[in-house]
Fold RING-type domain-containing protein.
Amino acid sequence: MTLDIVCNFRKCRRSLSSQAWVTTCSHAFCVEHGKSEFRHNAENSLTCPACGNELRDKFDVIQADLKPSETFKSIVLAGLKPDTIMDVAMRAMSFWSYQIEQETLYQETLAKHSKEKLQCLEEASTINMKKLHAELEGCKRKITTLQTEFNKKRKQTEELNAKKAIPVIVMSLWIFLN
Ligand SMILES: [Zn+2]
Ligand SMILES: [Zn+2]
């Protein structure tokens, strides 16, 4: 499983796979943000850009090689007592669990926002559908009314035409008889 921590500087979130600045308050930063935040500040005035913790000790923030060589891995804890080795490993693991916890919270917040956005869109879409449906019903009623009106007028016209035809028939009959 390849799992990388990400830069904790505001919205940077750059994946950290080879070099990183790490702090004792369990925060990690990319080379660019580590340089700008930690290198140019005067001693004893460093603060963590993620949590505001003061980083007074020279080991409160270090630049770590996230892909250490085999030689480094062989020597870095060599000579230390087993309980110290375990203590170091436990602290490194707690750094990781804090990072994973933060990432999970971040992803959960993202998912929540997306869900809320989707809900809003769905509600807006339902309202629009209802509005369109109402408009359609209105149009249908209008068509029915117009159709009824048209039928009425047509009937009136037919009746009128029939009435007009009677004198013509009478006249024709009179001419024929004479
Ligand atoms: Zn960064
Ligand atoms: Zn911090």
Notes: The pocket of zinc ion (ligand 1) is lined by residues 7, 9, 12, 14, 29-30, 32-33 (CB under 6 Å). DSSP finds three helices and five strands in the chain. Helices lie at 31-39, 70-75, 82-177. Residues 82-163 form one domain.
